[in-house]
Amino acid sequence: MAMIGFPTTCVSQKILCSSLQSKPSRSNISSSMSVHHKKPFRPAREVEGQVTHSMPPHKMEIFKSLENWAEKNLLTLLKPVENSWQPQDFLPDPSSCEFYEQTKELRKRAMEIPDDYYVCLVGNMITEEALPTYQTFLNTLDGVRDETGASLSPWAIWTRGWTAEENRHGDLLKQYLYLSGRVDMRQIEKTIQYLIGCGMHVKTENSPFMGFIYTSFQERATFISHSNTARHARRHGDLKLAQICGTIAADEKRHEAAYTNVVDKLFELDPDAAVIAFAGMMRKKIVMPAHLMFDGRDPALFNHFSAVAQRLGVYSATDYADVLEFLVGRWKVEGLAGLSEDGNKARDFVCCLAPRYRKLEERARGRRETREKRTVRFSWVFDREVQV
Ligand SMILES: [Fe+2]
Ligand SMILES: [Fe+2]
């Protein structure tokens, strides 16, 4: 994947007449189900080779010892509900007599935005909507999980508070997209249902070392991605949508600060375990949380969505290298001393990785530029073709 800048052409299909938006036929629905569901109770995409509980149990004490620290330094990065924005703050008010006028204006602005942008926005929204998976994921981590569902351990309070904040992201984007009339909501809802049913496989092995390194990476990645959809919305003249994406991006930035602070602390208390976990995650590669997405039709949906995001510069291979480089600097990995042999190897590995990615990316970009342009049909935009 590589960032190749902004798209130079806009998809011209702006007019969405009701005939284009008709619901999929019964035969469409049944054929997609029969192809992908020999056993309908199994996830649409299954994952093998899952490793569990690789962190030695005694390391859990580190997280117990950090509870006071977490109370003062982690929970303070949650925003009180009363000071928090809510999706309704950015959407037409359904109880107001101005609702229809405001919605009409929203839809008029939405008409000016090309399909490839919507593919990115929908992909981001679907990623946010799989939130049950992410809360489950955080509760797989040994030593920090919410043991009861209402635990008063600071780790558990953080996880629930974080989830509650994140819940607004998918809500806001989904309601905006519903009102825009530009996307096939039924196909999008199907994708969300499939995705939550599939879960995610980010290979953190129940280890909070790996888990918090993953979330640090992810929060920064989502900050970049939402910031870029904000930037593009502004370019297309939709300042309200830009504000929506920018507001979500600001939350992601605060979450990034929280998770990177936790990992900072881990580097301070157990640098060897922290750097080995960091290298382990990078060797396995940080997969995006929605990597198992499926819409009932396109088995390569995530790759296609990623290719559009890459082409538009919403999230690219260059961003991946940038995030890695940022985290290496943030956790002062290069200067780590007194490590074990494995720790030294891990440090050297992560410090050399970003320049290697950049070289590979440069070559890949050259190949892409000479390659013939390709399009893919996205069910999210009524099966219209979008360049990947
Ligand atoms: Fe989010
Ligand atoms: Fe976030």
Automatic annotation (TrEMBL):
Transmembrane segments: none annotated. One of its GO terms (biological process) is fatty acid biosynthetic process. It catalyses: hexadecanoyl-[ACP] + 2 reduced [2Fe-2S]-[ferredoxin] + O2 + 2 H(+) = (4Z)-hexadecenoyl-[ACP] + 2 oxidized [2Fe-2S]-[ferredoxin] + 2 H2O. Residues 24-34 have a biased composition (Polar residues). One of its GO terms (cellular component) is chloroplast stroma. It is an enzyme of class 1 (oxidoreductase). The keyword Repressor does not apply. Its EC number is 1.14.19.-. Binds 2 iron ions per subunit. Binds 2 Fe(2+) ions per subunit. Keywords: Chloroplast, Fatty acid biosynthesis, Fatty acid metabolism, Iron, Lipid biosynthesis, Lipid metabolism, Metal-binding, Oxidoreductase, Plastid, Transit peptide. One of its GO terms (molecular function) is stearoyl-[ACP] desaturase activity. Pfam families: FA_desaturase_2. SUPFAM superfamilies: Ferritin-like (SSF47240). Its cofactor is Fe cation; Fe(2+). Fe cation 1 binds at residues 128, 166, 169, 252. Fe cation 2 binds at residues 166, 219, 252, 255. It is found in: Plastid, Chloroplast stroma. Residues 24-52 are annotated as: Disordered. Belongs to the fatty acid desaturase type 2 family. PANTHER family: ACYL- ACYL-CARRIER-PROTEIN DESATURASE-RELATED, STEAROYL-[ACYL-CARRIER-PROTEIN] 9-DESATURASE 7, CHLOROPLASTIC. Homodimer. Introduction of a cis double bond between carbons of the acyl chain. This is Acyl-[acyl-carrier-protein] desaturase.
